[in-house]
Amino acid sequence: MAKQSALARRTVIGAMWTIATGLGARAMGLAGTMLLTHYVAPDIQGEVNGAQVAAYTAYFASGLGLGQYIVAHPDIDRQSIFNATVYYLTACLLAVSAVFLLREPIARAIETPGMVTYMSGCVVAVVLERLSYIPDRIMIRDMRFKEVGVRNTIGELTYTVSSVGLAMRGWGGNAIVAGMLLRALVRVVITVPAVDHREWLTPSPLSREKARRMLSFGIPLSLGSLANFGSQRWDNLVMLRLFGERVGGLYNLAWNLADIPASQVGERIGDVLVPSFAKLEPERRKGALIRAVTMMSLLIFPLAVGLGAVAPTVLRDTVFPPSWYDAGPLLSVLAALGVTRPLGWVIASYLQVHGRTRSIMVLEWLKVAAIILGVGALGVVGGPLWACAGVGLAFGLHALASMALVRRVSDIRYVELLRPLVRPLLACVPLVLAVLGTRAWLSGFGDLPRGVRVFAEVVAGASAFVLAVLVVAPAASREFLGTLRGALRRGR
């Protein structure tokens, strides 16, 4: 029992560190994104985004799930880790080389010829990032979450400062690519020495049996990771083809803003849960999953719904230039309809520890298909806003399918997973009403200094949610606050 209690404390503290550093890194990235809108036009950013998507598709397609294998199997030997490193780096070089050679046909397929200019730098950045990944996974395996978070934050700070600085000097889209290169290089320099090189670079024979075991676990998971990436970025390619570089650039900005609650909170929770679930006895994992869903809903629902509510004010009342105001409605739809997305990540962490990697792969590819079809079909019918609604619909279907699979694996009823979601979602109704009421009230004051309106809306919405959730979900709120206070005391 004492061991389980210590593991729970490490899990909560690890979640806090990864979320905090992730939010810090994302805040810096967001600041950089906002500043870049003053120096890089939407159409140029659309072209750079096309090149990034192509390069990172190669990155995820060649992962083979080996990093996840290391995290989920904390007792594997050094020979296995060395084998994983060799396969991991070799697959990356082959994949990015193929994408680079096919860069012009890819650009023609999505009718974005300007992306070819940026492909070389994006490909090199991807290769550099791959060099630091195995040491990073080893640190996560060892639950060194604080160190991982700090290093990722340093990398994001490097990207923000360098890309904005070079954009101010007139580098245009190349400033973004240069920032990617410097971020990847810094991560290599600060991450690789943090892990004993003997852990992953001790020369060992390549074992066919070890390869079979790792790849049978990892390849389905890798295909699932590729699909997860595709669900986040391939829709950008559809938007580029349907509506051109400008709308593609606006959509990319809206997606990056809407993605903050999901990726920087939900995904970080998922990173912490995999090693934590792996160390729990099987009979205790069911309760841990339900508690994780509860924590996720209390954190993400107000962030996602609140961001959707304040989106028009965020674009018009902060630092964005008028050329980007049209991203506001896109952001509202993407943020509000993305509340179900992190649920799939939490469930995927649970299924991964149970060895259901093929099931994760199938779920992720179904989600990709739903997103591409939803964006494409609804975009053709109703334009960009309908295309954004297609993304939210796809995430909702993925969450329902994930819950159905958990029911089969662990006999967890739908109601056990849905119950923690209902009350926090109801508490978001007063949040939205408070934001809209504050916006209507401030409209009678005429011109106000920049930032006043968005600050007032955020404060009103946050206050309304806190009061509402304490009323409609008192037990979950008390448990969450108690866990948070305990983690803070132990962290100190």
Automatic annotation (TrEMBL):
GO cellular component: plasma membrane
Locations listed in the record: Cell membrane
Topology within the bilayer: Multi-pass membrane protein
Residue spans crossing the bilayer: 12-41, 53-72, 84-103, 115-134, 288-310, 330-353, 365-385, 391-409, 421-442, 454-476
Secretion signal span: none
One Pfam family in the UniProt entry: Polysacc_synt_3
Claim: Metal-binding is one of the keywords in the record: no
Entry keywords, A to Z: Cell membrane, Membrane, Transmembrane, Transmembrane helix
Main location: membrane
Xref: InterPro entries: Poly_Biosynth_Transport (IPR050833)
Keyword Transmembrane helix: yes
Membership in a protein family: Belongs to the polysaccharide synthase family.
Name listed for the protein in its UniProt record: Polysaccharide biosynthesis protein
